[in-house]
Amino acid sequence: GAVVSQHPSRVICKSGTSVKIECRSLDFQATTMFWYRQFPKQSLMLMATSNEGSKATYEQGVEKDKFLINHASLTLSTLTVTSAHPEDSSFYICSARGADWTSGLGDEQFFGPGTRLTVL
Amino acid sequence: EDQVTQSPEALRLQEGESSSLNCSYTVSGLRGLFWYRQDPGKGPEFLFTLYSAGEEKEKERLKATLTKKESFLHITAPKPEDSATYLCAVREGDTGFQKLVFGTGTRLLVSP
């Protein structure tokens, strides 16, 4: 249990285009999902927190108009990088926090496999 | 703001050579300390959650312990497949939105 998937795993795009990354909790419902960014040999930096059906809460310094987050259902959140530029190239990772207490899942965050974005 | 510091930054062990990784933290009220394992190019894999000083948890060759100021991840008789980056995180925030603050990790390399 507690599997989180991300799609795509790798994407290369031209500067100025928009890229959408999907994050799905496959076997549990996630009321809260998180989006992180990770640079090489650095730790995870939280970008935003989203609850199903409400607006995302962005961390300081993260442009909400550039990184659009939609948490449309209890199993799906999307991150859209709008008008991507080379400096947006990074490893983007989502996580989901379980809401299904009956399954024994606590409040740990379970992470997806990540999406490597390269902007040319 | 809560801070998490991990040491050492990198650790090289021979297979079978036991050691410990350290995670020290400053937080006004601990609401959980988490250990994750991350392989290159992949997302973190959950290992343990610790909530109170004195708590210990084990999984195969790994054992996590917690004091009021730090946590240790003990690796007993490691194998090459234990090679990874180990991340520590503390949870901050009141009920509702609770986010994790991560340390920079310890890169572990176990040689056969």
Observed structural traits:
heterodimer, A: 120 residues, mainly beta, seven-stranded mixed beta sheet, four-stranded antiparallel beta sheet, 11 strands, globular, B: 112 residues, six-stranded mixed beta sheet
Question: Could you describe the 3D structure shown?
Answer:
- The complex is a heterodimer of chains A (120) and B (112).
- Chain A contains no helices and eleven strands.
- Helices cover 0% and strands 53% of the residues of chain A.
- In chain A, strands 2, 4, 5, 6, 9, 10 and 11 form a seven-stranded mixed β-sheet that branches. Chain A has a four-stranded antiparallel β-sheet with strand order 1-3-8-7, with no helix packed on it.
- Chain A has strands spanning 4-7, 10-13, 19-25, 30-38, 44-51, 57-58, 67-73, 76-81, 90-98, 109-111, 115-119.
- Chain A is globular and about 40 Å long.
- With 120 residues, chain A is mainly beta.
- Chain B is an all-beta fold.
- Helix content of chain B is 0%, strand content 57%.
- Chain B is built from no helices and eleven strands.
- Chain B has strands spanning 3-7, 10-14, 19-26, 33-38, 45-50, 56-59, 62-66, 70-75, 84-92, 99-102, 106-111.
- In chain B, the strands form two sheets. In chain B, strands 2, 4, 5, 9, 10 and 11 form a six-stranded mixed β-sheet that branches.
- In chain B, a hairpin with a 2-residue loop joins strand 6 (56-59) and strand 7.
- The N and C termini of chain B lie far apart (41 Å).
- The model of chain B has no long low-confidence stretch (mean pLDDT 91).
- At the A-B interface, strand 5, strand 9 and strand 10 of A face strand 5 and strand 10 of B.
Given the C-alpha coordinates, what overall shape of chain A results? globular
Q: Which stretches of chain A are low in confidence, meaning pLDDT under 50 for 5 or more residues running?
A: 101-105
The sequence of SSEs of chain A as H and E is EEEEEEEEEEE
Beta-strand proportion of chain A = over 45%
Q: Main beta sheet of chain A: strand number and arrangement?
A: 7 strands, mixed
Output the helix-strand order of chain B.
EEEEEEEEEEE
* Main sheet properties of chain B: 6 strands, mixed
Which structural class is indicated by helix and strand composition of chain A? Answer: mainly beta
Q: Which parts of chain B are unreliable, with pLDDT below 50 for 5 consecutive residues or more?
A: none
